[in-house]
Amino acid sequence: MSLLELQRRMAEDVRRPLAAGFAMQTVTEDGTLMEERAASYITPNPQLSSFERLEIYNRQYWFRVIGAVSEDFPAVNAVLGERRFDALVLAYLKEHASISWTLRDLGAKLPEFLEEHPELAGRRYRLAVDVARLEWAYVDAFDGERLEPLSLAELAGIGPESRFELQPHLRLLELSYPVEDLVLAVRRGTPETEMSSSASQERSGPAELRLPAMRRRTVYLAVHRYDDQVYYRRIGPEAFRLLGALQEGRTLAESLTAAFVGKTVSAGRQAQVVQECLAHASQLGWLCAPRVEERPA
Amino acid sequence: MPANRFNAFTDYGVGIGLRVPHYDHILCRKPVVDWFEIISENYMIDGGRPLRMLDAILDQYRVVQHGVSMYFGNAQPLNRDHLRRLKELTKRTKTPWLSDHLCWGSVDGRYTHDLLPLPYTFEAVRNTAQRIREVQDFIEIPIAVENVSSYAEFHESEMTEWEFLNEVVEAADCGILLDVNNIYVSSQNHGFDPMEYVNSVPAERVAQMHIAGHSKFERYTLDTHDHPVLDPVWKLYERAIERCGPTATLLEWDDNIPSFDEVHAEALKAMRFLEPARALELDEVMA
């Protein structure tokens, strides 16, 4: 067996979902006995069979990846309850194996996945999706890139045709529930952890928490980092659309149109909204100069 | 001997791993620590608090980078994005050497995030050495490869683990991060004499050592990094220092992390062996 063949075989076995009781499955999808498959490349020792030796890696893999995703979504865990959350994470990881050298990115598609699978969330589906989106926005805001914001002199020179790049760590969210208090309550009770180490991992459960009651109401949030702390800032719908359009690279004039499209708002009110929005955005350092793409010489 | 070209001729003492729960203690109390080891991947990010903390640490301490996802033994080409980010971080930390594991961990673009053991074959030697050379050429910093703890062995193997390690480092012309706890864990799981392993390592290539705690279960031993260092591991360390001289040593403690003082005190126990080795080295120089 070549090195590549061995690695392909072992990776497939290590990533195969566990059976009940965190045990390795005894039969593969095509009916092969795992005992025979493990023995084909792993030697037994007096204490452990080939199957049992492989099982150590199979279990470690799942503990590690489930642990990594769970750390990023403690509030989804709190909303769904441990049993449903474990089922969700497992289903997600079966479809989304890690394609990055860093565990940091492993949960990136979980909010999308949850949205596509309401059956995994039960009656708190919409709330759970909102919480997942906010928790992933937190991850992006926490360690996303920060650009140098526009200076006061640069801001003084902006006009209708100006385009901006918004801070790469800024995330704009439209949510069906005001979930930020819930997420904050859970995060306060969750210790900060590291992403990676080489040690073997054991699983630990989440702490018991009393969650704030939630009533359905559309809210708009800007999730951003300021002085290395992540903040959730409530913004109005017009500011949400304005910033969203700027984020897409549209000019200031185009973005203003997008902010009030389909709305009957007086010119005075429009001016006030835009002024407030841009003042906050510039104070918080969200407005940056567009990056010039590097072209090969 | 311990200051060698594989650790950029440095003479580092006893370090500990830089961990999040200790940030405040380190930055407020400024304890005297020879050096910190960081997990490179935790800082290969675009911005935010981890990098600010790292910069604050770098202002006052020496830092050495240790990676967990280079996977020198992968059978497929290196990940260029990973390499580029790693090189960027080395410019920030000015790490004198760089370590990662003698293992594999991904195939066909799918990652296991584990340090999987290699079959000890000549094909794996050639492949791994080639990849280490490529990394060394790109990063332009000495590389030290760490022996991993393992729970499985392969029918394909053509040599012992220590023969494999020796073949790889010779072919790659790189250093060794000798983890004596990993040697002990693997010796328990595979039934070899750990002292034979320590005695077989090319001492002149050892750039750094790791010590750590492990957990013993009924039928196997697991490398958990959540305990103080146990006596059999100290014995291996003592022998390794005897052979290699006073080498930069790092205590790994990654789970159930106690206070900074407790971790540091455990690490400083290594001085029992390093100080006599230093004195001996000095005597030899004076003579």
What is the count of helical runs of chain A? 12
Largest sheet of chain B: 8 strands, parallel, barrel
Lateral arrangement of strands in the main beta sheet of chain A: 2-3-4
**How many strands appear in the DSSP assignment of chain B?**
12
SSE class of chain A: mainly alpha
SSE string of chain A, helices as H and strands as E? HHHHHHHHEEHEEHHHE
Report the end-to-end length of chain B measured between terminal Cα atoms: 16 Å
State the shape of chain A.
elongated
Average pLDDT number of chain A: 91
Question: Over all CA atoms, what is the radius of gyration of chain A?
Answer: 24 Å
Give helix % range of chain A.
40-55%
Which key phrases capture this entry?
heterodimer, A: 297 residues, mainly alpha, 12 helices, B: 287 residues, alpha/beta, TIM Barrel, 10 helices, 12 strands, globular, DUF2063 (chain A), DNA-binding (chain A), Putative DNA-binding domain-containing protein (chain A)
Overview of the molecule:
The complex is a heterodimer of chains A (297) and B (287). With 297 residues, chain A is mostly helical. Chain A has a domain at 1-72. Chain A is built from twelve helices and five strands. Chain A has helices at 3-15, 34-39, 50-72, 74-80, 82-95, 110-116, 125-143, 152-156, 180-188, 237-247, 252-260, 267-283; strands spanning 165-166, 171-175, 219-226, 229-235, 287-288. A three-stranded antiparallel β-sheet of chain A has the order 2-3-4. In chain A, strand 3 (219-226) and strand 4 (229-235) form a beta hairpin. In chain A, helix 10 packs antiparallel against helix 11 (252-260). In chain B, strand 2 (35-39), helix 2 and strand 3 (63-66) form a beta-alpha-beta unit. Helices cover 42% and strands 18% of the residues of chain B. Chain B has a single domain (5-286), classed as Divalent-metal-dependent TIM barrel enzymes (TIM Barrel). Chain B has ten helices and twelve strands. Chain B starts with 13 loop residues before the first strand and ends with a helix. Chain B has an eight-stranded parallel barrel, surrounded by four helices. In chain B, strands 5-6 form a two-stranded antiparallel sheet. By secondary structure, chain B is an alpha/beta fold. Chain B is globular. Chain B has helices at 23-29, 49-60, 80-93, 122-139, 161-172, 180-190, 194-200, 231-244, 260-268, 271-286, and strands at 14-17, 35-39, 63-66, 98-101, 104-107, 110-116, 143-146, 175-179, 206-212, 215-216, 221-222, 249-252.
